[in-house]
Predict the 3D structure of the following.
Amino acid sequence: MDDHVEMGAESARPDEGRRGFLVKVSAACAGVSAVLVGFPVVRSFVSPSLPQPRADGWVKVADDIALLDVGVPVRVNFVQELQDAWVESRSLNGVWLYTEDGDKFKAYNGHCTHLGCSYVYDKDLKHFFCPCHRGQFDVKTGEVLAGPPPRPLDELQVEIRDSAVFVNYRDYRLGVSDKIEA
Ligand code: FES
C-alpha cells in the first residue's frame, strides 16, 4: 500500500515539472508581448514633446535663460536616436542645468559616473544624490562628496544663443577615474 502511494507520488513529479516549465514559458511569452506592445506606446509618448540632439551632439535644453531659476538645478530630458549597424534605437537621456547668477550656466551629463544611474537633486542636502549606491555630488562643481563614484560629474559644453541654452551632449565611460568619451 505504502509502495503504491510512493509510486503515485513519484509519478506526479514529472507532471509538476512540466507544469512549472509551461508556466515559465507562458510568463516569458507574456513579458515579450508586453515589451513589443509597450515599446511603440512609450516611443510615441516620449517622442513629440522632447528635444533631440543634432548629429553633432548639440541640443537645445531651454528656450529662454530668463525662465530658469537661479541657484536651483533643473533636469532636462531628451530623446537620443542611436544607429548601431542596422539596429536603430532610442534612449531617454538628460542633463542637469545649473546657474548661480542667471548668466553663466553649467551642464552635467545626467548619468552618475559610477555605474550610470540617474541621480536627483536633494533639496534638503542641496546636493545631487544617486540612489543606486548613495553617491553624492556638489551642485556647483560636480565634485564627489560621498559614495563610490570614481570622478566628478561629467560637465558638458554650454552655449547661449539668442537667450536659448544649448548643451553639447556626450557620454563618457563609467566607473573609471578619467573622463574618457564612450
Ligand atoms: S551608480 Fe551612482 S553611486 Fe553607483
In short: The longest strand covers residues 87-99. Residues 87 and 107 are 30 Å apart (CA to CA).
